UniProtKB/TrEMBL annotation:
Lineage: superkingdom: Bacteria
Key words of the record: Membrane, Transmembrane, Transmembrane helix
Protein name: DUF6542 domain-containing protein
Presence of keyword Membrane: yes
Residue ranges of the region described as Disordered: 1-56
Lineage: Bacteria, Bacillati, Actinomycetota, Actinomycetes, Kitasatosporales
Membrane-crossing segments per the record: 80-98, 104-124, 131-152, 172-192
Every DUF6542 domain range: 79-195
Amino acid sequence: MEQSIRTQPPGPRPRPPAGGGSREAAVPGPAAPRDAVTVRPSKPRPASSGPAPLIRLRQRLTRTGAGGESVKRPGPPTRLTAIGTGLLAVCGTLAFGLLDQLLFGGLGVLFGLGFLLVCFQSAVRVRLADLPAAPISGPIAFALAIALLGPAPLPGVIGQVLALCAGLAQRAGWLFAGTGLAAMIVAARFVAQRRIRRSR
Protein backbone atom coordinates (compact mmCIF):
# COMPACT_ATOMS: atom_id res chain seq x y z
CA MET A 1 0.00 0.00 0.00
CA GLU A 2 2.69 2.40 0.87
CA GLN A 3 4.47 1.73 -2.41
CA SER A 4 1.33 2.29 -4.43
CA ILE A 5 0.58 5.50 -2.64
CA ARG A 6 4.09 6.73 -3.20
CA THR A 7 4.06 5.99 -6.93
CA GLN A 8 0.74 7.74 -7.56
CA PRO A 9 1.07 11.41 -8.44
CA PRO A 10 -0.35 13.92 -6.07
CA GLY A 11 -3.73 15.43 -6.82
CA PRO A 12 -7.25 14.19 -7.35
CA ARG A 13 -7.68 10.86 -8.95
CA PRO A 14 -9.36 10.82 -12.38
CA ARG A 15 -12.90 9.55 -12.23
CA PRO A 16 -13.97 6.84 -14.64
CA PRO A 17 -16.51 7.98 -17.22
CA ALA A 18 -20.17 7.34 -16.58
CA GLY A 19 -21.28 4.09 -18.06
CA GLY A 20 -18.85 1.94 -16.33
CA GLY A 21 -16.38 0.96 -18.97
CA SER A 22 -13.47 2.81 -20.47
CA ARG A 23 -14.05 4.02 -23.97
CA GLU A 24 -11.35 3.93 -26.54
CA ALA A 25 -10.39 7.22 -28.09
CA ALA A 26 -12.00 7.66 -31.45
CA VAL A 27 -9.38 7.52 -34.10
CA PRO A 28 -10.39 9.28 -37.27
CA GLY A 29 -10.38 6.82 -40.09
CA PRO A 30 -9.82 7.50 -43.74
CA ALA A 31 -12.22 10.01 -45.26
CA ALA A 32 -15.06 8.51 -47.10
CA PRO A 33 -14.66 9.02 -50.84
CA ARG A 34 -16.92 11.62 -52.32
CA ASP A 35 -19.42 10.69 -54.88
CA ALA A 36 -17.68 10.51 -58.21
CA VAL A 37 -18.86 13.21 -60.59
CA THR A 38 -19.96 11.71 -63.85
CA VAL A 39 -18.36 13.57 -66.76
CA ARG A 40 -20.08 13.11 -70.06
CA PRO A 41 -17.72 12.83 -72.98
CA SER A 42 -18.04 15.74 -75.36
CA LYS A 43 -19.50 14.88 -78.69
CA PRO A 44 -17.09 15.34 -81.57
CA ARG A 45 -18.02 18.20 -83.85
CA PRO A 46 -19.03 17.12 -87.31
CA ALA A 47 -16.44 17.87 -89.90
CA SER A 48 -17.58 20.73 -92.07
CA SER A 49 -18.09 19.78 -95.64
CA GLY A 50 -16.55 22.00 -98.25
CA PRO A 51 -14.17 24.93 -97.91
CA ALA A 52 -16.40 26.81 -95.42
CA PRO A 53 -13.59 27.44 -92.88
CA LEU A 54 -11.36 28.81 -95.63
CA ILE A 55 -14.09 31.15 -96.80
CA ARG A 56 -14.66 32.43 -93.25
CA LEU A 57 -10.94 32.95 -92.79
CA ARG A 58 -10.71 34.93 -95.99
CA GLN A 59 -13.67 37.06 -94.95
CA ARG A 60 -12.03 37.85 -91.61
CA LEU A 61 -8.75 38.72 -93.29
CA THR A 62 -10.44 41.00 -95.79
CA ARG A 63 -12.44 42.76 -93.08
CA THR A 64 -9.45 43.48 -90.84
CA GLY A 65 -5.93 44.40 -91.85
CA ALA A 66 -2.64 43.50 -90.21
CA GLY A 67 -3.07 46.11 -87.46
CA GLY A 68 -6.71 45.25 -86.79
CA GLU A 69 -8.01 48.17 -88.84
CA SER A 70 -11.08 47.64 -90.94
CA VAL A 71 -10.39 47.39 -94.66
CA LYS A 72 -13.04 48.27 -97.19
CA ARG A 73 -13.54 45.51 -99.68
CA PRO A 74 -13.68 46.58 -103.31
CA GLY A 75 -17.12 46.18 -104.78
CA PRO A 76 -19.16 47.21 -107.80
CA PRO A 77 -19.74 50.94 -108.31
CA THR A 78 -22.92 52.54 -107.07
CA ARG A 79 -25.77 52.18 -109.57
CA LEU A 80 -28.10 55.07 -110.32
CA THR A 81 -31.81 55.02 -111.00
CA ALA A 82 -33.40 56.89 -113.91
CA ILE A 83 -33.97 59.97 -111.72
CA GLY A 84 -30.44 59.84 -110.38
CA THR A 85 -29.04 59.57 -113.90
CA GLY A 86 -31.05 62.59 -115.02
CA LEU A 87 -29.88 64.64 -112.05
CA LEU A 88 -26.27 63.66 -112.69
CA ALA A 89 -26.52 64.65 -116.33
CA VAL A 90 -28.20 68.02 -115.67
CA CYS A 91 -26.03 69.04 -112.71
CA GLY A 92 -22.79 67.90 -114.36
CA THR A 93 -23.51 69.64 -117.67
CA LEU A 94 -24.53 72.87 -115.95
CA ALA A 95 -21.42 72.76 -113.75
CA PHE A 96 -19.10 72.42 -116.75
CA GLY A 97 -21.01 75.14 -118.59
CA LEU A 98 -20.64 77.58 -115.68
CA LEU A 99 -16.95 76.74 -115.34
CA ASP A 100 -16.40 77.33 -119.06
CA GLN A 101 -18.18 80.67 -118.88
CA LEU A 102 -16.14 81.80 -115.87
CA LEU A 103 -12.81 80.77 -117.38
CA PHE A 104 -13.26 81.48 -121.09
CA GLY A 105 -16.42 83.62 -121.28
CA GLY A 106 -18.59 81.19 -123.24
CA LEU A 107 -19.61 77.62 -123.95
CA GLY A 108 -16.64 76.14 -125.77
CA VAL A 109 -14.35 73.14 -125.68
CA LEU A 110 -14.42 72.72 -121.92
CA PHE A 111 -18.20 72.51 -122.00
CA GLY A 112 -18.10 69.88 -124.74
CA LEU A 113 -15.50 67.75 -122.98
CA GLY A 114 -17.42 67.99 -119.75
CA PHE A 115 -20.58 66.87 -121.54
CA LEU A 116 -18.73 63.81 -122.88
CA LEU A 117 -17.54 62.96 -119.38
CA VAL A 118 -21.04 63.33 -117.95
CA CYS A 119 -22.51 61.07 -120.64
CA PHE A 120 -19.84 58.44 -119.99
CA GLN A 121 -20.46 58.42 -116.24
CA SER A 122 -24.23 58.31 -116.72
CA ALA A 123 -24.01 55.30 -119.04
CA VAL A 124 -21.58 53.44 -116.80
CA ARG A 125 -23.34 54.05 -113.48
CA VAL A 126 -26.99 53.62 -114.46
CA ARG A 127 -28.55 50.36 -113.31
CA LEU A 128 -29.60 47.69 -115.77
CA ALA A 129 -33.32 48.29 -115.31
CA ASP A 130 -32.93 51.97 -116.35
CA LEU A 131 -30.41 51.72 -119.20
CA PRO A 132 -32.38 53.92 -121.65
CA ALA A 133 -32.22 56.82 -119.17
CA ALA A 134 -28.54 57.50 -119.94
CA PRO A 135 -28.80 58.36 -123.69
CA ILE A 136 -32.05 60.24 -123.09
CA SER A 137 -30.94 62.44 -120.19
CA GLY A 138 -27.77 63.60 -121.97
CA PRO A 139 -29.42 65.62 -124.80
CA ILE A 140 -31.97 67.08 -122.37
CA ALA A 141 -29.20 68.29 -120.06
CA PHE A 142 -27.25 69.68 -123.04
CA ALA A 143 -30.24 71.65 -124.32
CA LEU A 144 -31.07 72.94 -120.82
CA ALA A 145 -27.52 74.18 -120.30
CA ILE A 146 -27.51 76.03 -123.62
CA ALA A 147 -30.93 77.56 -122.90
CA LEU A 148 -29.84 78.82 -119.47
CA LEU A 149 -26.25 79.81 -120.16
CA GLY A 150 -26.24 80.73 -123.87
CA PRO A 151 -26.55 84.39 -124.96
CA ALA A 152 -30.00 85.41 -126.21
CA PRO A 153 -30.01 87.75 -129.26
CA LEU A 154 -33.56 88.95 -128.53
CA PRO A 155 -35.38 89.37 -125.20
CA GLY A 156 -38.36 87.22 -124.33
CA VAL A 157 -39.37 83.71 -125.18
CA ILE A 158 -38.65 84.09 -128.87
CA GLY A 159 -35.09 85.14 -128.10
CA GLN A 160 -34.60 82.10 -125.85
CA VAL A 161 -35.88 79.74 -128.55
CA LEU A 162 -33.62 81.30 -131.19
CA ALA A 163 -30.62 81.12 -128.84
CA LEU A 164 -31.37 77.46 -128.14
CA CYS A 165 -31.63 76.58 -131.83
CA ALA A 166 -28.44 78.47 -132.67
CA GLY A 167 -26.55 76.90 -129.76
CA LEU A 168 -27.64 73.38 -130.70
CA ALA A 169 -26.67 73.95 -134.32
CA GLN A 170 -23.22 75.29 -133.41
CA ARG A 171 -22.48 72.49 -130.93
CA ALA A 172 -24.18 69.61 -132.70
CA GLY A 173 -20.88 67.68 -132.84
CA TRP A 174 -20.56 67.57 -129.06
CA LEU A 175 -24.23 66.68 -128.70
CA PHE A 176 -24.07 63.73 -131.10
CA ALA A 177 -20.73 62.56 -129.71
CA GLY A 178 -21.96 62.48 -126.11
CA THR A 179 -25.29 60.89 -126.99
CA GLY A 180 -23.63 58.29 -129.23
CA LEU A 181 -21.08 57.44 -126.55
CA ALA A 182 -23.82 56.88 -123.97
CA ALA A 183 -25.86 54.79 -126.43
CA MET A 184 -22.86 52.57 -127.28
CA ILE A 185 -22.03 51.91 -123.63
CA VAL A 186 -25.65 51.15 -122.79
CA ALA A 187 -25.95 48.78 -125.76
CA ALA A 188 -22.75 46.96 -124.79
CA ARG A 189 -23.94 46.54 -121.20
CA PHE A 190 -27.31 45.24 -122.39
CA VAL A 191 -25.72 42.64 -124.70
CA ALA A 192 -23.27 41.54 -122.00
CA GLN A 193 -26.08 41.10 -119.49
CA ARG A 194 -28.11 38.99 -121.92
CA ARG A 195 -25.11 36.73 -122.57
CA ILE A 196 -24.58 36.26 -118.85
CA ARG A 197 -28.22 35.26 -118.39
CA ARG A 198 -28.06 32.80 -121.29
CA SER A 199 -24.89 31.19 -119.95
CA ARG A 200 -26.60 30.55 -116.61
